[in-house]
Amino acid sequence: MRKYEIHTLKNGIRVVHNQVTSTKIIHCGIMLDIGSRDEDLENQGIAHFWEHMAFKGTKKRKSFHILNRLESLGGELNAFTDKEKIMFYASLRDEYFERAVELLSDITFDSIFPSEQIQKERHVILEEMSMYYDDPEDSLQDEFDSLIFSGHSLGMNILGNEKSVKSFKRSDFKSFVKEHLDTSRIVFSSVGNVPMEKVVALAEKYLSHIPAVSSAKKRKKFTGYKAKERILKREVKQGRCAMGRAAYKLSDQKRSPFYILTSILGGSGMNSRLNLALREKYGFVYSIGSHFVPFTDTGIFMISFGTEPSQMNKSIELVKAELKKLRDVPLGVKQLAFGKEQILGHLAMAEESNISFMMMMARNLLDLGHIISFEEIQQRVKKTTALQLQEIANEMFRERDLSCLIMEPK
Known about the structure:
single chain; alpha+beta; Cytochrome Bc1 Complex, Chain A, domain 1; 15 helices
């Protein structure tokens, strides 16, 4: 069982640390409870653009000095933006831990958004968008998000659109940061062979000077999901399909059983029901899978696959048949046991990754107010019954409630 400690600075920023004595690498990061869903139609993509601009200059560093600060020591500096979070993080030898904390604080809170760098990075992001849309797998996910969360910011592309990306000015970034920054919704997380006392001391040194601020901005909840169908014509050789619906939120008690059900249906294993039915039996697909992503107020369930256009309808019918089996027939004792062990194995392997655990602690604190242990998840999984899974299947896999997006060649 991993042990962790939590400390709260006077400005509301929380510090969480897991000491691991068997490593010489420290992973640390600052996670903010701000994401693309906090944007509107006019500033789509600004959270992701902000993530890029954090590396382009601060009050005391130019871009080169930011990039060279850790990489010259063999370390790594990175960031990501998703629907609900932005995170700036680093990995390096623990003897340089202080350097990482100072740099992360600098790029997170003291970026100056130089105008000339905004212009340069604008072109980089537009290239990123072009590359992204050239990948049918990635663009399928985005198109499906927009179908499920139509009219809501959860359905907007994290990268934004060409018009919005071309419009951003220095003042736009400053306004967005000022409107959404809330120190009580920020977590500094770390995993490595460093005592908690040192982590707290460095957090006090480099993060406690940040003024305590709160945001009046409230996220608009997603409600009123309705099943939809859409056919898109794209420059692709293979037809692609996404099926699914809005799903459970993070705090829903059915979240853990639904993970099990999703894994049995189309998880990463080659023995998933969808893979056996569409690939192994008929050879209709190269890969097929299902996944479930929960958010703070809703979630999304999606099945995705690619196939020859002439096999699309047959493939969809096979998927529906597998969903019907889960609705109509409860899992047998062996099937349920295998399904539980498989997902516990995946979770155990994920927990072995120190960088993943560092991110998970930060996300859990922001979303749930506490950190879910592997042992707690294990107990939830073990208590799940075949009847529970069948009831969830009948709730989530009703054919009339499923949306379908088909991307077919022009």
